[in-house]
Design a protein that fits this description.
single chain, 114 residues, mainly beta, 7-stranded mixed β-sheet, 4-stranded antiparallel β-sheet, 11 strands
């Protein structure tokens, strides 16, 4: 059974940083590109970032470049998303997805507020 479990969210003040994690199981992690997708309350899904199977290619939503960094550790079956200089508009549930978004985690809530 494919499982994706996100963690690392929380309440952060504007300007702060977070590192989200996504631990995968039930499949060969290194065989899949992985993505982060977020959804703010009352809004649609928004693609955030994607990392290739070998981690050599990374893609970001243009408006988020420079503050978001995606990485993966295949030995730990884990993908990460580091977010710096958090803004209130980053408040959302952050999901990790596998491949072409065919599998999703339960999400982790990020709230940016003073």
């Amino acid at each position: 059974e494919v499982q994706l479990v996100e963690s690392g969210g929380g309440l952060v003040q504007p300007g702060g940083s977070l590192r989200l994690s996504c631990v995968a199981s039930g499949f060969t992690f290194e065989d899949y590109p992985m993505s982060w997708v977020r959804q703010a309350a009352g809004k649609g899904l928004e693609w955030v970032s994607m990392i290739s199977m070998d981690g050599g290619s990374k893609y970001y939503r243009q408006s988020l470049r420079g503050r978001f960094t995606v990485s993966r550790d295949d030995a730990k079956n884990t993908m990460y998303l580091e977010i710096n200089v958090l803004k209130p508009e980053d408040t959302a549930v952050y999901y990790c997805t596998r491949g072409e978004w065919e599998s999703w985690g339960q999400g982790t809530q990020v709230t940016v507020s003073s």
